[in-house]
């Protein structure tokens, strides 16, 4: 954090001065330098990974925020050493932004509601957990928080604990997955009509004030669309990347296109697209029938250079699983649905858990 004697303390509240050529040149110099710092697992520079945000240069001082997982905190020292090599820099401040205990944070988003975003988040969490990962699921869909019901936790009460760093929500647990949801704080059947600053505060609390313990993956189920709530969440959290869910119809695809642009604008890598309700499997012969049309997900993936991570069939057992609180990927991992989510979980593990010379998933995520 910047000390009170730093120029940033004054600058926080002041109207930003017009950019001067010297500051602009220095900013370019700093960015170029930061681009030489590689995240060792993804083997990609920290600027392209969206880890560096809020870069500001005031006179001879540099300030930036570094959004990282618990295993990446050593990057701070590397950055400070590197910036100290600039002959004009008197001091640099790197504010570490992380979620305590969490290694990899991934958001699940969709351009519009009802396309299966929560279904994807829940089944992916189950697939990652089944592969031996410690997994948390944060239901940040303030407009329709239905993760608790999908995991059989609908009526549960949330506990609060005192910790050395303040009070924290205690996540609930379902099928070995730690779960926190805005829905758990609202009375049943009560609309969640939070707006503006209240919404911002609740979301920020959810990101920072949950006692997750040690997690390999934290999945965040975002609200649909590209509004204030989504932007707050992606800007306030150390998200490594976002998975976008769509259906094959043209209208859903257009919404996802908008979402992808929004994420790329704020510098969050897009890990790929999940096409849900891609086809209906014939109950007799097993032939796939693309009742909502076909090719939408692949077309979008090609156009936006984001990989198509999987195509999930329509299966009535998904709804049944949602109602009884057990994701289909857990109750029937060998089903076509279970296999799609297992494949995606393996791709994520390969990308985020093993040092590698730029996996296809990581490489394509960074195309702007
Ligand atoms: N592949 C599928 N086959 C059958 N039913 C599905 C499938 N995917 C989702 N559903 C069902 O569609 C409904 C909407 O799914 P879900 O709640 O996951 O969508 P969502 O995008 O999260 O919606 P919202 O944005 O409104 O929260 C649920 O009843 C779910 O069980």
Automatic annotation (TrEMBL):
Q: Which residues bind ATP?
A: 111-118
- Gene3D superfamilies this protein is in? P-loop containing nucleotide triphosphate hydrolases (3.40.50.300)
Domain MIP18 family-like as annotated: residue spans: 29-79
* Entry's Gene Ontology molecular function annotations: 4 iron, 4 sulfur cluster binding; ATP binding; ATP hydrolysis activity; ATP-dependent FeS chaperone activity; metal ion binding
> Under what name is this protein listed?
Iron-sulfur cluster carrier protein
What InterPro entries does the database record attribute to this sequence?
Answer: FSCA_dom_sf, MIP18-like, Mrp-like_CS, Mrp/NBP35_ATP-bd, NUBPL-like, P-loop_NTPase, YlxH/NBP35
- Pfam families on file: FeS_assembly_P (PF01883), ParA (PF10609)
Q: Name one GO biological process term.
A: iron-sulfur cluster assembly
Q: Would I find Protein transport among this entry's keywords?
A: no
Q: What does this protein do?
A: Binds and transfers iron-sulfur (Fe-S) clusters to target apoproteins. Can hydrolyze ATP.
Keyword Endoplasmic reticulum among record annotations: no
Which residue ranges are recorded for the region named Disordered?
A: 1-23
Give the family, as the similarity comment puts it. Belongs to the Mrp/NBP35 ATP-binding proteins family.
Subunit record text: Homodimer.
Query: What keywords are assigned to this protein?
Result: ATP-binding, Hydrolase, Iron, Iron-sulfur, Metal-binding, Nucleotide-binding
